[in-house]
Design brief:
The structure is a homodimer of 305-residue chains. Chain A is an alpha/beta fold. Chain A has two domains: 181 residues, Rossmann fold (3-Layer(aba) Sandwich), CATH 3.40.50; 113 residues, Orthogonal Bundle (6-phosphogluconate dehydrogenase C-terminal fold). In chain A, the strands form two sheets. A six-stranded parallel beta sheet of chain A has the order 3-2-1-4-5-6, with helices on both faces. In chain A, strand 2, helix 3 and strand 3 form a beta-alpha-beta unit. In chain A, helix 8 packs across helix 12 and helix 12 packs antiparallel against helix 13. The termini of chain A are far apart. Chains A and B meet through helix 8, helix 9, helix 10, helix 11 and helix 12 of A and helix 8, helix 9, helix 10, helix 11 and helix 12 of B.
């Protein structure tokens, strides 16, 4: 059984025939279901509500969709595509239904807490994080090809089964992702910096603009705000549940990031207070040069409204 | 003479035949030159260097391009499209060449200091600010139709000649802009909030990410940064000269904005520290609802890379 799914995934030239379970058919789970079916897998989807199951069937997100965890019974690979809160406190019925021989992986955007919980719960668990778009959510959001050219990070530790890790590696490759591995703490600090902290930095800007007590300034700010403001505030005006879940699960890394951020902003502010314009310009030249190094992963991705 | 240019601009049905001077043929000046020629104006461009004049002639940014301020001699309307520093310390030769009867306006992104200087320098000065894109700069950047559907704010005070103001109003309308008037202080506070302060907020995020001392985290952050980070850092990685000029000329408003911003961020951080997740979610729901009100002016504008 173990080498079965491994061999399937290794031989990418022919069509796969294994069974994969996907728990949750939202943006990530639904997209995985579409992609894996197109690669020849038999996809078993587990969802919470019958109404979701019906929509998932209509959209063809899986070959079989059920609200009964037994739908996972014969799966060689199970992907947990649940919201972080549910992933960190899994239901007993789900745990009971996971085949012990299956490779189990997740798609959560925070890895250390997930690894801590799940390495106790399943012998073949692999913590992983496909970095795909999150503007849409729910059973209507899944789409084909979501993971192509996107980073897929696994965060193995000494307890991780190397063969199970390789199964997830081949899964990511089959979906066209860019495979990376990192320790969970480095991953969580990196995503705090480039994804979770920016939500707060950006939301704080909207709050500051929205809190203007002078109505003339407030109305003018709304009338004059252009693409620059739209871009800087996009993630801060995004999905409130997602931003909160990130903050609740990656708290320590976000607070470290915010400490660095506050210091960074205070340094710039001090230059403005002191009127040190050539020093400010030198700092802005540095950020101008820094930014392209952070854009490689989003090259070719469409900007969002 | 005074009513000449006014009548020209009022009768938009027929082609104009007046003479307009444009001082500086960069993105804004060059775009004005192209638009005004297409509307039938005779455009006189004044630039600093002969090499710039040659490029401006090749690009057809004006009917006549010179490095000699006397090129403005017969203009009924002169538009100062200079960088803020030069606008605030105009050269004596330029001041000497401005016809006293001409309407004089500017395009600077900060208005109170400009109004203060120029209301002393010319009797028919009108402070104005067309809000058009600034990603590109220089004599190669100007393009037709840049001002269409974009806000054009004038900031008159009690010293402003009403007829001169109306000339600038008609200019803005002829170019397809959305006309607004405001007092200079409200304008400056509004643009500090939605344009100048975001540069620092955004640059501070790049600096915080760039200052990571752990190379594993730094490399991972670069590899994983996606559209969210790209958007939030776009203005902070923009034109360093422009960001510095804004900070140097709109200092007080930016510092007030930064004070509000810091308080706003600290409130969010306090919720994270205290683990008040439902309160954090309520705040993120509020920013989610706030943002669309700030997007009206950028509707239909293309997002930038």
């Amino acid at each position: 059984m173990e080498s079965g799914v491994y061999m399937e995934l290794m031989s990418q030239q022919r069509r796969f025939s294994g069974s994969v379970g996907i728990v949750g058919l939202g943006l990530i789970g639904g997209s995985l279901g579409l992609d894996l079916q197109s690669l020849g897998w038999h996809v078993h989807g587990l969802v919470h509500r019958e109404s979701t199951a019906e929509r998932a069937r209509v959209r063809g997100l899986a070959d079989e969709v059920s609200t009964d965890p037994q739908v996972l019974a014969n799966c060689e690979l199970v992907i947990l595509a649940l919201p972080l809160a549910q992933l960190l406190s899994p239901e007993p019925a789900l745990l009971h239904a996971l085949p012990e021989t299956a490779v189990v992986t997740d798609v959560g955007s925070v890895k250390a807490p997930v690894l801590k919980v799940w390495s106790q719960l399943h012998p073949r668990f692999v913590a992983s994080h496909p970095m795909a778009g999150t503007a849409e959510a729910g059973v209507e959001a899944g789409l084909l090809g979501l993971f192509e050219h996107r980073p897929w990070v696994a965060t193995p530790d000494h307890r991780t089964d190397p063969e199970a890790l390789e199964v997830v590696h081949q899964l990511a490759m089959a979906l066209g992702s860019q495979w990376l591995t990192a320790d969970a703490e480095s991953h969580d600090q990196a995503v705090a910096l480039i994804s979770h902290m920016p939500v707060l930095v950006s939301a704080a800007l909207l709050r500051a603009a929205g809190a203007q007590s002078d109505p003339a300034v407030f109305d003018l700010a709304k009338a004059l705000a252009s693409t620059g403001f739209a871009d800087t505030t996009r993630v801060g005006g995004g999905n409130p549940q997602l931003g909160t879940a990130m903050a609740a699960t990656n708290t320590a890394a976000i607070l470290r990031g915010l400490q660095d951020y506050r210091q960074s902003l205070e340094q710039l502010e001090a230059l403005v207070v002191a009127g040190q314009w050539s020093a400010l310009q030198a700092e802005l030249e540095r950020t101008h040069e820094l930014r392209p190094g952070f854009l490689a992963a989003s090259d070719g991705l469409k900007p969002q409204p």
